[in-house]
Design brief:
Length: 314
C-alpha cells in the first residue's frame, strides 16, 4: 500500500509561521513529532544552517519510509523513527541529540492518508474501514463498529465528533450491522446519510468519520501524553509549536500550555502571600492562536481550521 506520487502529496500548513516561531538557533536540533511527508522539516531545513540537526517521528510506516527518502538530500536531516509520539520517552534515545531547540506537532491526518482510499479515512471514496495511522497495529474502525455496544458507539460519536444526533447515528449503525457487517467507508457513509437530512450530510459525515478516527488512534490520549514528554526534551529557551485542527485538540493544547505559564498556586485558601513556591516553566510565544491567512486557505482548503500555538521553555 504505497502512497507516493503527486496525487498523494501533502501541502504543509503555515510553514512560514512555523519556521519563524520555532527557530531560535540556526545551528540547533529540531524534532517534528508528526513528520508526515516532511513538509515542515523541509521548510525548517531551508532556514537552518548546515550544522543544524533535523529529526522526525511518525506512526505511519509509509510516511516514515517515503519521507526518509525525500529528506536524504538535506544536509541537516538525521532520521525519522516509526512510533506513536506518546512513546517519545522510550524512543528519544535513538536520536543523536538528547535535547531540542524546537519541537513541532502538526496534528491529525495528512493528505496522502486521506486521499488513499485504501487507508479508510475518507467518506468521499470507497475503501476498507481502517483509519489506523499505523496499519500494522491496533484495531480498525470496522472492528470498533462491529464490537462496541450502542451506548459506546454513541459516546464516541458524541464526544469525539461533537455530534448532537449521536444516539440516532449509533442506533442506525447497530441496526445495520445486524443485517450486514459494516466494513467499508461507503457503507458507513450510507448508514449515516440515511438518518441525516440532506443539507447536513457532509458536515455530519465529517464529524462521524473524525470521531471514529480519533477513537481508533486514541488521538486525544496520545496528545495529552506527548505534550509534557516533549516539553521535558526541550532545552531552556527552546520552543514547542502545535498545530491543531479541531476544538478537542486545541483545548488540550491550550490548557496544557496555560498550566506551564500560569501554574496553579497550591497554597491553602486565606494565606496573605503565596508560600507554595509554584513557578511558571514557560512563556507564551503566541498570545492567541495563529490562523492561516485567506490566501493560504484559498490555495489549501485543508488548512482552514488550523490553529498554531507556541510556547518557550524558561
Ligand atoms: C498533518 S500530518 C503532518 C504533515 C507534515 N507536517 C508535513 O508537512 O508533511 C500528521 C501526521 O502525524 C502522524 N500522526 C498522527 N498521530 C500520531 C501519533 N500519535 N504518533 C505519531 N505520528 C502521528 C500521521 O501519521 C500524519 O503523518
Amino acid at each position: 500500500m504505497t502512497a507516493s506520487g503527486p496525487d498523494f502529496a501533502h501541502t504543509p500548513v503555515m510553514p512560514a509561521e512555523v519556521v519563524s516561531h520555532l527557530i531560535t538557533d540556526r545551528e540547533g536540533a529540531y524534532l517534528d513529532l508528526t513528520a508526515g511527508r516532511g513538509g515542515h522539516l523541509r521548510a525548517l531545513a531551508g532556514q537552518l544552517g548546515a550544522g543544524a540537526r533535523l529529526y522526525g517521528i511518525d506512526r505511519d510506516p509509509i510516511a516514515v519510509a517515503e519521507t526518509t527518502q525525500i529528506l536524504q538530500s538535506f544536509v541537516q536531516f538525521r532520521k525519522i523513527i516509526q512510533a506513536p509520539f506518546a512513546e517519545l520517552d522510550h524512543v528519544a534515545g535513538q536520536f543523536d541529540d538528547s535535547a531540542f531547540n524546537g519541537i513541532l506537532l502538526d496534528l491529525g491526518v495528512s493528505s496522502p492518508q486521506i486521499d488513499n482510499a485504501l487507508r479508510g479515512f475518507s467518506f468521499q471514496s470507497d475503501g476498507p474501514l481502517d483509519m489506523r495511522f499505523d496499519p500494522d497495529s491496533g484495531v480498525t474502525a470496522a472492528e470498533l463498529i462491529d464490537t462496541l455496544d450502542q451506548k459506546q458507539l454513541a459516546e464516541i460519536i458524541r464526544s469525539y465528533g461533537e455530534e448532537r444526533e449521536a444516539a440516532r447515528m449509533a442506533r442506525a449503525i447497530v441496526m445495520e450491522r445486524q443485517r450486514q457487517k459494516i466494513a467499508t467507508t461507503s457503507h458507513l457513509a450510507a448508514v449515516i446519510r440515511a438518518v441525516t437530512p440532506k443539507p447536513q450530510q457532509t458536515k455530519t459525515l465529517a464529524r462521524v468519520f473524525q470521531a471514529f478516527r480519533i477513537a481508533v488512534n486514541r488521538e486525544l490520549e496520545q496528545l495529552e501524553k506527548v505534550l509534557p514528554l516533549g516539553f521535558q526534551l526541550l532545552k531552556s529557551g527552546g520552543r514547542m509549536a502545535v498545530i491543531s485542527y479541531h476544538s478537542l485538540e486545541d483545548r488540550i493544547v491550550k490548557w496544557t500550555f496555560q498550566s506551564w505559564f500560569r501554574p496553579r498556586c497550591t497554597c491553602p485558601p486565606g494565606l496573605p502571600v503565596c508560600v507554595c513556591g509554584v513557578k511558571a516553566i514557560a512563556v507564551a510565544v503566541t498570545r492567541k492562536p495563529v490562523s492561516p491567512g485567506e490566501a493560504e486557505i484559498a490555495r489549501n482548503p485543508r488548512a482552514r481550521s488550523a490553529r498554531l500555538r507556541v510556547v518557550e521553555k524558561l
